[in-house]
Every structure is written in C-alpha cells, then in structure tokens.
Amino acid sequence: MDTSAPLFSEAWIGAVPKDWSVEPLGRWFRERKTTVSDADFAPLSVTMQGIVPQLDNVAKTDNNANRKLVLEGDFAINSRSDRKGSAGVSGLDGSVSVITTVLQPRGLNPRFTHHLLRSRPFQEEFYRWGHGIVDDLWSTKWSDMKSIKIPVPPEPQQRAIADYLDRETAQIDAFIAKNEELVTLLTERRASSVVELIGKYQTIPLKRLVSPARPLTYGILQCGEPVENGVPYIGPSDLPGEGISPTLDSLRRTAPEIAAAYSRSVLKGGDIVVSIGPAFGRVGLLCDDLKGANLTQDTVRVAIEPDKIVAQYLVWVLSSRVANDHWDRQILGATFRRLNLGTLGDTPIPCPPLSEQHRIAADITAMVSEMDDAIRVARRSIELGRERRAALISAAVTGKIDMAAAHD
C-alpha cells in the first residue's frame, strides 16, 4: 500500500492512500427491497455482532409476510441503528424486519464491507445523515445513505485488510471473552463468599429486630410533582444498593402538606431502607443528613433495635442470597414480582451474638472491596479491548495502517 501521497477526502475518512478511491456508497451497492414471508425465508436478527438467526427476545409481529429478503453476501443495517453498530454482511439467506436497509454489494469484498460499514466512524456518519425527532425514532433512509462517501481500496488490498482484521479482532475478541468470563466468575464468587461469611445461625424474623416504636412501614402513596425546598423522599431508584446511602441533593422533594400526612414513615440517620417494588431488594443505610426525609410506597423503613442487630451486618444479609432466595420462594408464581410488608417482615435473619455480627460485617466489607477491585480491573480490560478493536478497524478500513508492514 502506497501511502506516500495521501488524498484528503470526507471528514469521517480523513486522508487515504493515493491508490484508493473515495466514492458514494450508492456506486457500490444496490438496495434490495423484495418483500417476503418468514414462512419461506427464516427470520434473522440484525445485531451488534452481525446477522444471526432471529433472537428469542425479539418482538414478533402477526404480519410475518411483511419482511425484507436477505441473501448470503448482502449487507443489512438497522435504519434505526442510533450509533449501536447493528449491521453486518449476512452469511445466511433469510428475512429481516422492514426497518432494516438491505444492500446488495456490487464489487466490494464482503468481508471488507463487513468491517467498513460496521466501523465506528461510518456508524457516526450514517447517523449524521439520518432524520427524526428523538434517537429512538431517528432513521437513515437509503435515499440519503447512498450519498455517503466511502473509502475503496483496490480489491487485493480489500482482501488484505479483511484478513488482517479477521485475525486481529479474533485475538482481541478472545481477550475480551476471557475477561468477561473472569467478571462472571468473580461476581459469582463474591456472592457466594458473602453467604459463606454470614454462616448458619439461628434465625429471627426481621420484624422482631425492628423497634416497636417505629415498625416496618412504607411511605407516601402519591408524591405529586417535585417541589423546590420541599420534603425529600426516597424511592427504589434512589437506592444504589448494598447499604450505600442516597445523597440529600440527589433526592426529589414533595410538598410539605403531602409529607405531613405520612409522619409514620419519617426517616432518621441509621435507618435501613429496602425497596419492595418491581426492583425489590435494594438496600440503603441512611446517613445522618437524611433525617426528616420520607419514603415512597415502593420502599420500606427498617428501624432496627441496636441491641439485637448490627446495622451493617443486617445490610449484608438483606443484600445477599440469604434474603433474596427467601423472597424468590415467597413470590414464586406471582403475576407481579414485588415484596410486601408481610413477606419482608418474615424474612429469616441469621442472628449470631452482636460481637460476631460486627466481625462478620467487617470481614464481608473487606472481602467485597478486594473482589470489587479485581472486577473493576477485568471490566477495564474489557473496555480497553473494545476501544482497541474499534480503533484498529477504523484505522484499517480508512487506510491508516500499512498492510505490508502489518504482515511483516
């Protein structure tokens, strides 16, 4: 590849080698608009990983005859891709959703096409040519898409780039997969270690560990529109989980007259709050500056008896499989998966002596910190791998990598 005399082209492409051309996408593709039934052509899904047999979680329609034909070697791209890269060259004959743009290549190497049109810079350019009100309804039509300029190297270089990217991305993908597996293993080990550290002790129902003067209770049924300088309140979305307290400035506020009707659910520092709605099981141990705040109907205040249970220990129990497995059994088969005061109050809490609770809580906190550090490292490796993969593809398909040197 001769890069000694670069040619400046479209902004998303940059400079390309002198033996490359920069031409409208419509020069190299023809739109395929044939309508078929998935009874005759198997349904396919257009994903970030490419074109695959239709995924189980894809919404099905009654009109399965109104689909677009895709043949092996065609390039399909979700017209509502919104920068996600849902596109690819199909290795299968089949049918796709009508919102998909199906392109029949005319002379480009299919594997080079796959990398080029899935590259991050092209996806951004594809999005830029779209129209819509919001991202979810943003769409790029073929009439606009065909005018996008693309870099076109000579055919031997297309093959060389495709071979290089197939090889290099396979190695990066393997690296990413190993770290994803590591995250899964560490996450599972973290959860099981919490249970092991809690141990097996005689249990006491949660409601018997709560102050009789401040029993388990949920909060405000209708909080109304947010009110500046009103009474702060905590809902499920305000709870990060595992005892982390919401911050005062992050909370919405309700009118004082609304909150006044719910004096029973006023909070204090040191209270535990548990979500019971659809996102049940999030637990927060409140900091002192949340004194006087309130709750929504999907959260419950747990005001403990300090001489019976250690707050941080209880947080770990309620955040663990010890509690969650019990809750899952209690609501098994329920149409709406949510807790209620009775189910929460009956949660069996292992209760060793207070001194042991303090030790267990400290051990869990230390273990979780160590495991979370390891998980963060693995996730960062995944992030860097994905960034490296995207940058490599972008550089290769726009002529920024000398293939001769890359193969040495």
Task: Briefly summarize what is shown.
This protein is α+β, with helices and mostly antiparallel strands. The protein is built from ten helices and 22 strands.
Q: What is the CATH third-level topology name of one domain?
A: Adenine-n6-DNA-methyltransferase TaqI, Chain A, domain 2
Name of the CATH first level of one domain:
Alpha Beta
Number of strands: 22
Largest beta-sheet details: 4 strands, antiparallel
What would you report as the Rg, rounded to the nearest angstrom?
Answer: 29 Å
Determine the number of helices (DSSP H or I, runs of at least 4 residues).
10
The helicity comes to 25-40%
Structure in words:
By secondary structure, this protein is of the alpha+beta class. Among the domains are: 23-152, DNA methylase specificity domains (Adenine-n6-DNA-methyltransferase TaqI, Chain A, domain 2, Alpha-Beta Complex); 202-351, Adenine-n6-DNA-methyltransferase TaqI, Chain A, domain 2 (Alpha-Beta Complex), CATH 3.90.220.20. Helix content is 35%, strand content 18%. It has 10 helices and 22 strands. It has helices spanning 110-118, 120-128, 142-145, 155-198, 256-260, 311-318, 321-330, 341-345, 354-397, 403-406; strands at 7-8, 15-16, 21-24, 29-31, 35-36, 44-47, 50-53, 67-70, 75-78, 87-89, 94-96, 100-105, 149-152, 203-205, 217-218, 231-234, 252-254, 272-275, 283-285, 294-295, 299-302, 348-350. The strands form 8 sheets. A 4-stranded antiparallel sheet has the order 4-12-9-10, with helices on one face. A 4-stranded antiparallel sheet has the order 15-21-18-19, with helices on one face. Strand 18 and strand 19 form a beta hairpin. Helix 6 packs across helix 9 (354-397). Mean pLDDT is 92; it is low at 1-5.
